[in-house]
Design a protein that fits this description.
The complex is a heterotrimer of chains A (about 300), B (about 625) and C (about 180). Chain A has about 300 residues and is an all-alpha fold. Chain A has 13 helices and 1 strand; from the N terminus they run ααβααααααααααα. Classes of the chains: A mainly alpha (about 300), B mainly alpha (about 625), C alpha/beta (about 180). Chains B and C meet through loops of B and α3 of C.
């Protein structure tokens, strides 16, 4: 039963902490561009404002897709451990692949609902998002596979425990770098925001979203960010107590925001060539090092 | 067993004549026979064996093992669904009576393959299955005749290699019996012989399950066969190949046979060769599926990729990889059958298989859409459905063995499958409805009930996979592959792998709770106003529809995005080398050679004939035969 | 005016602090928006952001003159926006036609066709004036006075009559195909 409480706590942290971080991220981007920027609670206002509006719906599949997206994201966010064994809601089910593929439920729901709106921009955005997935997931999965091979476990909380001697960031730095680059793609941050390019394809999948649909998908996005960064922090930045976890989360987020605020956008095949070039090569190099036992 | 199989074979002929009178009665008889066989499987006792007859002094043996049970169960599940589906669907076909006959014949023959206790019986039933299915294929589209020939040739390539290997085994051990052969092979000192026999036997499986060098028939045969029969082809018939591959890699003690040939992480190099072929077919299948416009060919290529998964899983020579591969047989059989039946329903109503000619069918055929949706969730390996479990197991084996390149290919195939399953989803079911399909209706209940039933089975096995894991575990125990952990732990609700465990029930419940929370939030906030996709909103008289940059759009067909969906990605491998072209060149070469001989010997002039006749007679006299 | 419920008051507070505007620029006034958005004036500090589609947006900026062809698209776009929605008329062109007051192809007064919540006078208004107008709009939203979207619903017949008078029947008939 404690698992359920921890899962609820997970969701609460995901919602409040990540929405705050989004506001902070916008503030940081603004400072980089020499603006003042919105207050840190701006994202809360945005979400609840969007929820309060009177939306349009394009049929049942549209509604169902949004619900499936949010449901999948909530389910995933409820499983991920937050930086220690204690904050692991379901110690038997926190397998990396389970989290990774449960995460895809949300993505599929979003894709289905948005294409169900009947707008070609949404379809283009979704196909771009899927292609991008092909780009960033592969190096990431290879790095994670080599890590699982090294520690002989795919369970996230066990991976955290095994880092007591030293963070994976230091044990396999190449893998950490590759995973961070993949993380940028996963977050859809600036060089990789191909799927929701507002100026090209009218914000892609979100083109038909109004009012509460936009709000719900924003919440889904928040949970996704939580899952993605939490996985990175858990797997590469070791354990520690809860506050340490939040601090690491914050640092990773700020780093991603800083990188994204100075870079322009890739084209879709540039992105694929980029990911399948250096990061994938480095991921295999990392796997080779792990096989040979040449870790730091 | 023998009596049942033979009587079903005889019944199939009877069904032909009954169908001549009324094909509906024939189809119903077919379905009843399928249901009977399904029940019959559960009455048989594992380990029982029977003599079918004698051929050239050799006993033809039928044995019923755990593997037979599992594979026949999966087959019957698919075939029974298609048989029920066909009761209504057949009215769109030209040759319903022949279809009924060959379908039942193929059913009996493929059960015979799974029951076979020796190499020769397996071969006989195999050929019956291939021939009867080959005769159904040409009933489909225009190109289907060519497809049937290619199918037969490819299949024959495999089976003759298989037959050759069987005779090699017979001449060495004087025995066809599978169990005895397995023992003999384990003790045989000659490595070249074992490797040859192993690869030649595997060739039949490779040809049948569409593994890389012999995969080209899948596209053309699955794509052009009658629509419902594609479900059987991809869901069941391809699994005959997986069965043979399982026999040669797991039933034959390959670890013992190829001792000293270990290449990498304790996998013998012949097995590794098969594994590499499987991995290649994952890549080929995925890349080609992404760029197909014909939805049936798209899923045909996905069958190539999934056949690769099964082979990779089995060939890892690891308990969890083996279970994953075998479970993937079940998952892919169900998913492919549902998808092809959904496509058959779509074609039944729209008479086209081109994705680019369709769109927006969801509002017309919601049940078909839901079936397709759940099937692709299973095919792409996403948790609430059973497809995830097998993929997870295969990943476990690959990661644990440190096979990173193969793991990379498996990941690639998995993420690539998101891309290709999305294409029919968006192009056929979602988006704008072309005007010509505005009167399309949902298919009748008799057609959607089998689809929905299969979806329900796949779904339940995703949440509670232990019933289906039980025969697999028994099979694994038969083949003496021992795991380091208890894989299916039903008492703790856990599926375990070497690198961790997960609880399918918790995952499912979390998903339900997540959905409930989402629904709660959804109902909490203002109700949406329903708008049509493009037509003017009637109530207020004002056009409220989708975003068009302020422009008016009157032809919804133009506003449907379903051609060249992944153009950016497709452009990257536009100039890929094509194995089909290589085979075509080979074909052309033999054709030209034939032309040469033909031109040489069959001159139109009588004098040439006279010349060759005299020459032949002279040679005959000279050699004095 | 009807009394607002507590929830609506809270929602209005939120709406006033998060205004997403549509990237739909009709006339020369659009030129004044980039400086308003960027480092010099930075309107994001008030929570004002550009959005890509009418579905997501809260305010429609009519930045300058509207000829009848554009007006049609503007009305179309306005009706695609989700309630509550606000309109800002930009520059003197939207008030009385500006320097195009006697043109045969432009409309003179926007208020006849869609309800305008705030006008900004000037040709063209400077970013300071724009920010001032945004502040004023925020104040109006907070008080619940920015009710153009309600007026549009209530007086729909009147607006539609005006639209038809200037543009012909665009909604009922297809202008190219019928």
């Amino acid at each position: 039963m404690t698992g359920v409480y921890k899962a609820i706590f997970n969701l609460a942290i995901a919602f409040f902490f990540v929405l705050t971080l989004e506001g902070i991220g916008r503030k940081i981007t603004a400072r980089v561009q020499r603006r003042i920027g919105p207050p840190w609670y701006q994202s809360f206002i945005d979400v609840f404002k969007a929820l309060s509006k009177h939306p349009f719906s394009n049929g049942w599949i549209f509604d169902f897709g949004v619900l499936m997206a949010l449901g999948g994201a909530i389910a995933t966010a409820a499983i991920v451990p937050m930086g220690s064994t204690f904050w692991t809601p379901f110690p038997n089910t926190d397998n990396f692949f389970v989290i990774m593929y449960l995460f895809a439920v949300g993505a599929l729901g979003m894709a289905m609902g948005m294409v169900g709106s009947g707008n070609p921009w949404a379809s283009i955005g979704v196909t771009r998002a899927l292609t991008q997935m092909l780009g960033y997931e592969l190096p990431y999965l290879i790095v994670l596979a080599s890590m699982m091979f090294y520690y002989k476990t795919a369970s996230i909380h066990l991976l955290i425990e095994k880092q007591a001697g030293g963070w994976n960031l230091l044990v396999m730095p190449i893998g950490a770098i590759v995973a961070f680059i993949s993380l940028l793609g996963m977050l859809g941050k600036k060089p990789f925001d191909i799927a929701i390019a507002p100026a090209e394809i009218a914000s892609g999948p979100m083109v038909e979203l109004s009012g509460k649909y936009l709000g719900l998908l924003h919440i889904m996005h928040v949970f996704s960010i939580f899952v993605e960064i939490t996985l990175f922090v858990d797997v590469f930045l070791g354990g520690g107590n809860f506050w340490w976890f939040l601090l690491k989360f914050l640092i990773v987020w700020i780093l991603a925001v800083l990188i994204s605020s100075v870079l322009p956008r890739f084209r879709i095949e540039q992105m694929l060539k980029f990911y399948w070039g250096v990061p994938l090569g480095l991921a295999f190099l990392n796997a080779f090092f792990v096989l040979m036992g040449w870790t730091l | 067993m023998a009596i049942t199989l033979i009587s079903i074979l005889a019944l199939s002929v009877a069904v032909y004549f009954i169908s001549k009178l009324s094909w509906k009665v024939g189809a119903v008889i077919n379905a009843l026979a399928g249901a009977y066989l399904m029940i019959y499987l559960f009455t048989l006792k594992v380990g029982s064996s029977e003599v079918l007859g004698t051929l050239f002094g050799e006993k033809l043996l039928l044995t019923y093992t755990n593997a037979s049970f599992y594979f026949s169960f999966v087959s019957m599940l698919v075939i029974l669904a298609v048989m029920v589906f066909a009761i209504k669907w057949l009215d769109s076909q030209k040759y319903p009576s022949a279809f009924n006959m060959f379908l039942l014949m193929m059913t009996a023959a493929s059960l015979g393959v799974f029951f076979a206790g020796d190499l020769l019986t397996l071969y006989i039933f195999w050929e019956i299955a291939v021939l009867s299915s080959m005769l159904i294929v040409p009933m489909g589209k225009k190109e289907a005749r060519r497809a049937a020939i290619i199918y037969a040739v490819m299949s024959a390539t495999g089976t003759y290699m298989y037959l050759y290997a069987s005779f090699m085994i017979y001449s060495r051990y004087g025995n066809f019996n599978l169990a005895e052969v397995a023992k003999d092979l384990a003790n045989d000192p000659s490595m070249p012989f074992k490797v040859t026999v192993y690869l030649l036997l595997a060739a039949a499986g490779i040809a049948k399950s569409g593994i890389f060098p012999l995969h080209t028939w899948l596209r053309i045969a699955h794509g052009n066969a009658p629509d419902a029969f594609s479900a059987v082809l991809s869901g069941q018939l391809v699994k005959l190949g997986s069965y043979v591959l399982m026999l040669v890699t797991a039933f034959f003690p390959t670890l013992k046979m190829f001792q000293g040939l270990e290449l990498y992480s304790k996998i013998p190099s012949p097995n590794y060769f098969l594994l590499a072929l499987g991995a290649t077919s994952i890549i080929v299948g995925t890349l080609m599926a992404i760029k197909q416009d014909d939805m049936k060919m798209l899923i045909a290529f996905s069958s190539v990729a999934n056949g690769g998964y099964i082979l990779v899983g089995i060939a890892t020579m690891d308990a969890i990889g083996f279970e994953g591969g075998i479970l993937h047989v079940f998952n892919h059989a169900l998913a492919a059958a549902i998808i092809f039946m959904a496509f058959a329903s779509v074609v039944y109503r729209t008479h086209t298989t081109k994705i680019s000619e369709m769109g927006g069918l969801i509002h017309k055929m919601p049940i078909t859409f839901i079936s397709y949706l759940f099937a692709i969730i299973s095919l792409a390996g996403i948790p609430p459905m059973s497809g995830f479990i097998s993929k997870w197991m295969i990943y476990q084996a690959l990661v644990r063995k440190g096979m990173f390149v193969t793991a990379f290919i498996a990941f690639f195939g998995s993420i690539g499958s998101f891309l290709y399953v999305f294409r029919p989803l968006a192009g056929v079911f979602l988006g704008q409805l072309p005007k010509k399909y505005k009167d399309v209706k949902e298919v009748p209940a008799i057609m959607w009930i089998p689809m929905v039933t299969l979806v329900a089975i796949s779904f339940i096995m995703g949440v509670w996979p232990f019933p289906i894991l039980k025969p697999i575990e028994a099979m694994r125990a038969d083949f003496a592959i021992s795991p380091s952990v208890k894989i299916a732990d039903a008492s703790n609700w856990l599926v375990r792998g070497v690198t961790g465990s997960w609880n399918p029930v918790i995952v499912f419940n979390l998903f339900i709770i997540g959905f409930a929370i989402a629904y709660l939030l959804y109902t909490l906030f203002p109700k949406p106003k329903k708008v049509d996709l493009l037509a003017p909103h009637k109530e207020e008289g004002a056009p409220i529809n989708i975003y068009t940059g302020g422009e008016y759009i009157y032809t919804p067909d133009l506003y449907q995005y379903n051609t060249k969906m992944y153009a950016g990605f497709e452009r990257m491998y536009e100039k890929h080398p094509s194995w089909e072209k290589v085979l075509d060149m080979l074909c052309k070469f033999f054709h030209d050679l034939g032309q040469l001989v033909h031109g040489w010997f069959f001159r139109p002039s009588p004098s040439a004939y006279a010349f060759w006749t005299v020459m032949t007679l002279l040679i005959v006299f000279w050699v004095r035969w | 005016m009807k009394e607002r419920t507590v929830w609506e008051q809270i929602a209005d507070q939120l709406r006033s602090r998060s205004i997403w505007m549509l990237h739909y620029c009709t006339g020369c006034g659009a030129m004044e928006l980039p400086p308003t958005m960027t480092a010099r004036f930075d309107m994001e500090r008030f929570g004002i952001m550009p959005m890509a589609t009418p579905r997501q947006a809260d305010i429609l900026l009519i930045t300058g003159y509207l000829n009848t062809k554009t007006l049609r698209r503007v009305i179309y776009t306005y009706e695609q926006m989700a309630d509550p929605k606000y309109v800002i008329g930009f520059g003197s062109c939207t008030i009385n036609g500006g320097i195009y007051y006697d043109s045969y192809s432009t409309i003179n007064r926007l208020d006849y066709y869609i309800p305008v919540d705030v006008y900004i006078a000037g040709c063209m208004p400077r970013p300071e004036a724009i920010l001032e107008a945004f502040q004023y709009l925020m104040e109006k939203i907070r008080k619940g006075e920015a009710d153009g979207w309600k007026r549009y619903k209530e007086n729909y017949e009147w607006y539609k009559q005006n639209q038809i008078r200037s543009l012909g029947e665009v909604y009922v008939h297809d202008e190219f195909h019928e």
